[in-house]
Design a protein that fits this description.
The structure holds 2 protein chains of 2 kinds. Chain A has a domain of 103 residues: OB fold (Dihydrolipoamide Acetyltransferase, E2P) (Beta Barrel), CATH 2.40.50. By secondary structure, chain A is an alpha+beta fold. Chain A is elongated. In chain A, a hairpin with a 3-residue loop joins strand 16 and strand 17. Chain A contains 9 helices and 20 strands. Chain B is an all-alpha fold. Chain B has one domain: MetI-like (MetI-like fold), CATH 1.10.3720.10. Chain B has 12 helices and 2 strands. A two-stranded antiparallel ribbon of chain B has the order 1-2. In chain B, strand 1 and strand 2 form a beta hairpin. Classes of the chains: A alpha+beta, B mainly alpha. Chains A and B meet through strand 6 and helix 3 of A and helix 8 and helix 9 of B.
C-alpha cells in the first residue's frame, strides 16, 4: 500500500491567512474575532478554501445566495442538500465550470475564482465518472500527469501507485467500457488523486452504485481521505452518507446554508426546524415559553429560554417508556397508533390525550398495545429556529 | 411472437424491391461487362475478359480514373477543412444560434443540384460575376480563363455541394461527445487546445471518417459538375461511363468500368466502416 505517497505535498505549510475576515460570521454560529490579527493565528491557519458571499443566478433564477464557507486543510466536508438546493452548482463554481455571479473564492489566501479550471489545483470526481472512453485505465489515470509534462518514469510509478491504492492494478490495460461501475468509480478517484490536488471535489460519486457497494465505498473513501490527507468536498443528497463520512456537514437549502456543523452536532443540536427534519427523524413541538417554562399543549418543562413562542426538536430515540420514579423528566401518557419494525429498533407513533402525535424509537419488541407511560428529559428538547416555507 | 404470414408480409416487399431494382440490374450489368460489341454494333453474348483488359491497356481510362480520384480527394480535403471548424463551432460555441446556423447549412441541400452547378457557371464564366468584379476593381485586365472549364471549377463546385454531407456526420459525432469529458479534461489541467486534441478530436474521428467517405465517394461518381464546368481537362470517369452507355454505344466496356468503380467504392466503404468501428467507444 502506498501510504502517504499521494499526500498533498504541502499540508500545514499553508500561509493560511483569512484576508480581511474581520467582520465575517462563521457558519457554525460562532462569531469570528473582530480583530484580524487574533483571527489569523487561529482559525485560518487551517483554512484551505474560503468561500465568501458567493451567489449564483441562472438568468432570473437565483440558485445560490450569499454562501460563506471554509474548508480546513485535511477536512472532509460534505455539502448536503435536496435536489435543486444548489449543491452541485456550488461544487461546479469551486471547480471552475461555472462562474459565480457574486462573491469570491480563495485558496490558501489567493483568489481562485478568476482562474480557469485547468489552472486550479483542484480535481473532481464526477457523478458519472466521466472517464475518457478512448483511453485505457492507465492512460486515464495518467492524463493529468501527462498534461503537466511529468517525466515518463515518474509518471509510470505514480500511476502505478494510484492504481494500487484503489486496487485496480489488474485492470490497467482495460478500456472504461470493459469495467464495472464500481471499478470505474475507483479509476475516477485514482485519476483525480494522482495529481495530488490540494482539494478534491466529489459530485455524488456513489449515487450510481447499489446499496452494498455504496456502503463499502463510503468506508473506503473515508479511509483513503485520512491516508492521503487531502481536503475533500463531497456533495450528496443522502444524509446518512453525510453523517457516516464527514468531519463537517454543510446543509444547503434552496441556495442558502442552513447549518454548518460536525455530524454529531448537527444531529444533536439542529439549529433550525428544517435541519432537524432533514437529518434523521424528529418530532417538532411548537409552543410557548413563559416564565422559564416551555409549554406545548399538555407537555411542559423548565427551560432557560426567554418568553415568547418556542419550537423544539425532540428526537424519537429520546422518548422512552417511563421507568422508576419521576425525576427531572417530562412524563405523559400516549395511545399507540402505529408500529414500524426497523430491525434493531421500532418506530412507534403515539397519540396523547390532547391529540398531540409523537414518534418514538425503542429497541425492538413485539406488539406494543394500548396506552403507555412515556418520558423524555427536557435537555433533549432542542430549541430550533422555525424554517419558513420558501417559494 | 408474430405469425409466419405477418413476418413474410413485412419482409418480402423490401426484399423484392432490392432484388428487382438492385440485384437484377447489377447482375445484368455484370454479365454485360463480359460481353462484346461487334463492329456491326450488335452486342455479342460471348464471354471474354477483353473489356477489363482494355481498361488497363488504353491509357485514358486509368488516367481519367486517377484524375477523378485526385479531384475527389481534393473535394474531400476541402470539405473536411470547411465542415470541421463549422461543426465544432456550432456544437461547442454557437449557443442560441445553433439551430439557425444548422438550418443554414442544411437549406442548400433543398436547392436542385443543377441550379447550384449553374450558379457557379454564372459566377466563374469569362463574363461572369467574379471576372467582371475583378476587372471592375482593376485587379485583372483580362478575364481569368482558368476559373471555368477546369478541374478547379469542378473541385470548387463539388466542395460547395458536398460540404454539408461532410458536415452532418461530423456535427453529429461532436454533439455526442459528453460535455463532462471536456470538463474532466479541463479539471485535470488540460487547456482548451490540449482538450481538443486529446479528447474532442479523437472522439469525433468516426464522424470525420463518415464525412470524408461521403465527400469522396459522392464526388468520385459525379458526372454533372465535370460535364457543366469541367471542360476537356476536367473530365471524370463517370463522364466516360455516360458516353460509353450513350453516344459511344459500348455498354460492355461501360459496364466493366462501372464494376471497377463499384469494387473501389465498396473497398472504401469497408475501410471506412472498419475505421469508424476502431474509433468508436460507445
Amino acid at each position: 500500500m502506498a501510504t502517504g505517497q499521494l499526500a498533498c505535498d504541502c499540508p500545514g505549510k499553508m500561509p493560511g491567512r483569512r484576508p480581511g475576515g474581520a467582520d465575517a460570521t462563521r457558519d457554525d454560529g460562532a462569531t469570528v474575532s473582530q480583530t484580524a490579527t487574533a483571527d489569523a493565528t487561529q482559525a485560518s491557519a487551517s483554512a484551505l478554501l474560503t468561500i465568501r458571499n458567493v451567489a449564483k443566478s441562472f438568468g432570473k433564477i437565483l440558485v445560490l445566495r450569499d454562501i460563506s464557507l471554509e474548508v480546513a486543510e485535511g477536512e472532509f466536508l460534505t455539502i448536503l442538500g435536496e435536489s435543486g438546493s444548489g449543491k452541485t452548482t456550488l461544487l461546479r463554481i469551486i471547480a471552475g465550470f461555472e462562474s459565480a455571479s457574486g462573491g469570491e473564492i480563495l485558496m490558501g489566501g489567493e483568489r481562485l475564482d478568476n482562474l480557469p479550471p485547468y489552472r486550479r489545483r483542484v480535481n473532481t470526481v464526477f457523478q458519472h465518472y466521466a472517464l475518457f472512453p478512448h483511453l485505457t485505465v492507465v492512460e486515464n489515470v495518467g492524463y493529468g500527469l501527462k498534461i503537466s509534462k511529468l517525466p515518463k518514469a515518474e509518471l509510470a510509478t505514480r500511476v502505478e501507485q494510484a492504481l494500487e491504492m484503489v486496487k485496480m492494478t489488474p485492470y490497467a490495460g482495460s478500456k472504461p467500457s470493459q469495467i464495472s461501475g464500481g471499478q470505474q468509480q475507483r479509476i475516477a478517484l485514482a485519476r483525480a488523486l494522482v495529481n495530488r490536488p490540494r482539494l478534491l471535489l466529489l459530485d455524488e460519486p456513489l449515487s450510481a452504485l447499489d446499496a452494498n457497494l455504496r456502503r463499502q465505498m463510503q468506508g473506503e473513501l473515508k479511509a483513503m481521505q485520512r491516508e492521503v490527507g487531502i481536503s475533500f468536498v463531497f456533495v450528496t443528497h443522502d444524509q446518512e452518507e453525510a453523517m457516516v463520512m464527514s468531519d463537517r456537514i454543510a446543509l444547503l437549502r434552496r441556495g442558502e446554508l442552513e447549518q454548518v456543523a460536525p455530524p454529531r452536532e448537527i444531529y444533536n443540536r439542529p439549529a433550525t426546524a428544517y435541519t432537524a427534519q432533514f437529518i434523521g427523524h424528529t418530532n417538532l413541538l411548537g409552543g410557548e415559553v413563559k416564565d422559564g417554562v416551555a409549554r406545548c399543549q399538555s407537555l411542559s418543562w423548565r427551560t432557560g429560554l426567554r418568553d415568547g413562542p418556542g419550537l423544539f426538536s425532540l428526537r424519537p430515540e429520546n422518548i422512552r417508556p417511563a421507568e422508576g420514579a419521576a425525576g427531572a423528566t417530562v412524563r405523559f401518557r400516549g395511545k399507540i397508533l402505529r408500529q414500524a419494525f426497523h430491525g434493531a429498533t421500532e418506530l412507534i407513533q403515539v397519540e396523547c390525550a390532547d391529540g398531540l402525535r409523537l414518534s418514538l424509537r425503542t429497541a425492538s419488541r413485539e406488539n406494543w398495545n394500548g396506552e403507555i407511560e412515556l418520558e423524555f428529559s427536557p435537555a433533549d428538547a432542542v430549541p430550533v429556529r422555525p424554517s419558513q416555507e420558501k417559494t | 411472437m408474430f405469425s409466419r404470414a405477418y413476418r413474410a408480409a413485412i419482409t418480402v416487399p423490401p426484399l423484392l424491391w432490392v432484388a428487382v431494382f438492385l440485384l437484377v440490374p447489377y447482375a445484368l450489368l455484370f454479365c454485360y461487362s463480359f460481353w462484346l460489341v461487334s463492329p456491326s454494333q450488335v452486342i455479342v453474348h460471348s464471354w471474354t475478359l477483353a473489356n477489363y483488359r482494355q481498361l488497363f491497356d488504353v491509357k485514358v481510362y486509368l488516367q481519367t480514373l486517377f484524375r477523378s480520384m485526385g479531384i475527389a480527394a481534393r473535394v474531400m480535403t476541402f470539405s473536411l477543412l470547411l465542415a470541421y471548424p463549422l461543426a465544432y463551432y456550432l456544437s461547442f460555441y454557437a449557443g442560441k444560434r445553433k439551430e439557425l446556423l444548422y438550418q443554414l447549412v442544411i437549406i442548400p441541400l433543398w436547392v436542385s443540384y443543377l441550379v447550384r452547378a449553374y450558379a457557379w457557371k454564372t459566377i466563374l464564366g469569362s463574363d461572369g460575376v467574379l471576372n467582371t468584379l475583378l476587372e471592375y476593381v482593376h485587379l485583372s485586365r483580362h478575364p481569368l480563363e482558368f476559373l471555368l472549364y477546369s478541374p478547379f471549377a469542378v473541385v470548387l463546385t463539388l466542395t460547395h455541394i458536398y460540404t454539408p454531407f461532410a458536415f452532418l456526420p461530423i456535427y453529429s459525432s461532436l454533439e455526442h461527445v459528453p460535455r463532462s469529458l471536456v470538463e474532466a479534461s479541463h479539471d485535470l489541467g488540460a487547456s482548451p487546445f490540449q482538450t481538443f486534441w486529446r479528447v474532442i478530436f479523437p472522439l469525433s474521428v468516426p464522424g470525420v471518417v463518415a464525412g470524408a467517405t461521403f465527400a469522396f465517394v459522392l464526388s468520385l461518381g459525379d458526372f454533372l459538375a465535370p460535364l457543366l464546368l469541367g471542360g476537356p481537362s476536367g473530365i471524370m470517369i463517370s463522364n466516360i461511363v455516360v458516353s460509353l452507355f450513350g453516344a459511344a454505344y459500348n455498354w460492355p466496356l461501360g459496364a466493366a468500368i462501372s464494376f471497377c468503380m463499384l469494387a473501389l467504392v465498396l473497398a472504401l466503404l469497408f475501410l471506412s466502416e472498419s475505421l469508424e468501428k476502431k474509433w468508436s467507444f460507445r
